[in-house]
Automatic annotation (TrEMBL):
InterPro entries assigned to the protein according to its UniProt record, in alphabetical order: Gal_Oxase/kelch_b-propeller (IPR011043), Gal_Oxidase_central_sf (IPR037293), Glyoxal_oxidase_N (IPR009880), GO-like_E_set (IPR015202), Ig-like_fold (IPR013783), Ig_E-set (IPR014756), TAT_signal (IPR006311)
Domain of life: Bacteria
Residues making up the signal peptide according to the UniProt record: 1-35
Pfam families assigned to the protein according to its UniProt record, in alphabetical order: Glyoxal_oxid_N, GO-like_E_set
Signal keyword on record: yes
Protein name from the UniProt record: Galactose oxidase early set domain-containing protein
Record keywords, A-Z: Signal
Domain Glyoxal oxidase N-terminal: 260-595
Chain segments carrying region Disordered: 488-509
Gene3D superfamilies tied to this protein: Galactose oxidase/kelch, beta-propeller, Galactose-binding domain-like, Immunoglobulins
Start and end residues of each Galactose oxidase-like Early set domain: 607-700
Species this protein is from: Streptomyces racemochromogenes
Amino acid sequence: MPRTIRRRAGRRAALAAVGAMTAGLLLTAPQPATAGAPNLLGNPGFETAGAPGSDMPSCWSKSGWGDNDFTFATVTDAHSGTKAMRVSLTRRVDGDRKALVTENTTCAPTVAPGRQYDLSAWYKSNTPDVAVTVFRHDTAAGWQYWTDLQNPPVSAAWSRTQVRTPAVPPNTDKIVWGLSVYGVGTLTTDDYALEEVGAVPPQPTCTGTAEECAKGKWEVMGTQNPVRSMHAVVLRNGKVLLIAGSGNDISQFNAGTFTSAVYDPVAGTVKTVPTPVDMFCSGHVQLADGRVLVMSGNKGYPSVDGRIGYQGLKDSYVFDPATETYTRTNDLNGGHWYPSATILGNGDVISFGGLKEDSTGNVTAERFSAAQNKWLPLNQVNQTWSYWGLYPSMILMQDGRLFYSGSHTFGNGTAGSGASVYDYDANTITDVPGLRRKDERDESASVLLPPAQDQRVLTIGGGNNETNPAANRLTDLIDLKKPSPAYTAGPDLPQGLVDTGTGKRPQTGAEGKMYVSAVLLPDGRVLETGGGLHDRADPVFEASFFDPRTDTYQPGLATDPIPRTYHSGAFLLPDGRVMSVGDNPGNGTYNHAVSVYTPPYLFKGPRPKLTSVIDTEWVYGDTQRITVDRPIARAELIRPAAVTHSSDPNQRFVDLPMTVVDGTTIDLHVTGNPNLAPPGWYMLFGVDAAGVPSVATWVHLGGAPSLAAAGQRPAAHEHTFANELAAPKENPGQRASVPVAPAVAGCDRHYGSVNVCVPTAFPAEVAKTTPARCAWLAAHRFPKRMKVNGSDPLRLDADGDGYTC
């Protein structure tokens, strides 16, 4: 049965609420473009009648979906000529209606991949629920929805709307479009145009070495990281919050020494920050106002004999970038060591998984209310009593549901297919198929690919810390716009050099990596970097770009010279570079070196500049004007990172369709759907046709006016994507927790101190003998003689003196 779309926040009340405040800034009608390329549409003004018996003009078709009452009519109230098209909705539960250019070889304009096109039309409407909707013809997959580009404002008189498409994707030969009505009201349109944007600019000149221009460049900074940062958050002011807590060091925990630092990448300075509790392995997310919500952390380390595992805190704090201080909130309902943290479209935060105070698995969902600025009591939060594991990757979908990608930390995936859609309102979990080797996606990375409007997720690599196989090369893709989404196989992860303790060698066969970092870049690609071949060992030196337009990797990039495995992270800076920190192998050491990657796009000549951003407080459905120093091809919002353990489910790249007023003045069209771009601070980038980005300008999306009105606003434009899922699973009954083995972290606690991780399972190539295991430990720089705590299950104490090897 088709799923009923829930009513969600739209634009009408938001525009009313901020109308007075933004009267001089909200652009009610784009400027008409000057005459340019020829109009590629046939019958753009509806003047030519259709074939005998047809009730639509030539080259136009009735289109739309959903539960609504509608009429189509060719009317004489025209902008020019004698005819126009009127579409009315008198009742709407969901869906839309639109007059669409006919999807056939005669009427659909031919386009070229990589080029951009200006779409324009004259219209009158009495509803704000109108969108410019575009479909494309894929030469392999046929006709499919592409994107919504703009929400033209209400206009009683004839007004012209114009918007530029993104670069046409590969394998696209034709596009069609129309103005959709998705709310009760009437829209009249006339005089459509589709014009190709002018000539492609000349290729840029390389400003670095040939290698830098092809592969980019890594630099190890002179300033070392003063803390053992397990968590990294890019703040709304461009600084970086690095959280260590006890830093996986039990001596620091016992001493009550908990640390954080704020790094300023512009000044190159680092400031340590008082830290109230052990935030080691906490969860974190940026709230709508730019503060950082930090939840749970480490209440206690495992006992030396391994009988007690890690324990989760109930504590929760917010970090204020303005004062660089932590303030305590109310407690969570239970401990959550390794919790998820996902911000929702209304600014609330939802969290799952992790370990409780007693080391059992937490089965309760937690919800932080943005309106009340507190965690809600358990009885006010919908519960499925499901255990999601540790750091489950929960990605917000365009209709408010959550997609669990299958990426997690420590051990096997969830029962079933390993990936699922969670519907909070319906309180259901529905598996989606296709994720390969779901029990070897421990420490994989998942990202919502650019742009967020495409609703496609990439999952990269992984392994299993319990069985400790060589990490895999698998990459899997899923399109959440499809009625029955399923993962499909992506290209294998490129291979590099691996250091298995005896020096670097090329990877072979199916060897991939876990603990990988995946960073969304302003040119629309994903940088994957870092990672290791085995659990907390054997770093892999490899980096590549994944291009979501072609679903291919560009291998052979410059590699970070610093190993980046367990407890490492990489993230985008506002200047377009990528920073990388951390490495905490099983021998208990920690690498404090900081690396910065300069991508090839910064060796392509001068960068475009955002010379003005008229308003930095944005609301949903806005049109915002910027000026640039020269033409750009795209603009986008990128949500700043909050990353740990390969996980940042809130990372997203939101396209901003453009109306080009002239060569230096551009109107940006902000999505009306807060589920695509949850409220908060974003980095605004402008990118030229060569993929060279500007330095980011910080803008705030949402804000108090739009959030306060959220309860009264109609639904944003949503399609019935993922509406033909299989039947939901049966939820478990109410329960307190699930048992979790104390060895969940993959460490055998019978040897050495707690912060040393002797693997419960050695790599498969290591013989199950004392000499072979001791040789592996020596090659990986474990302490030479570790105390045996009780029994000796791995047979590392051959002479029985109570010490290993």
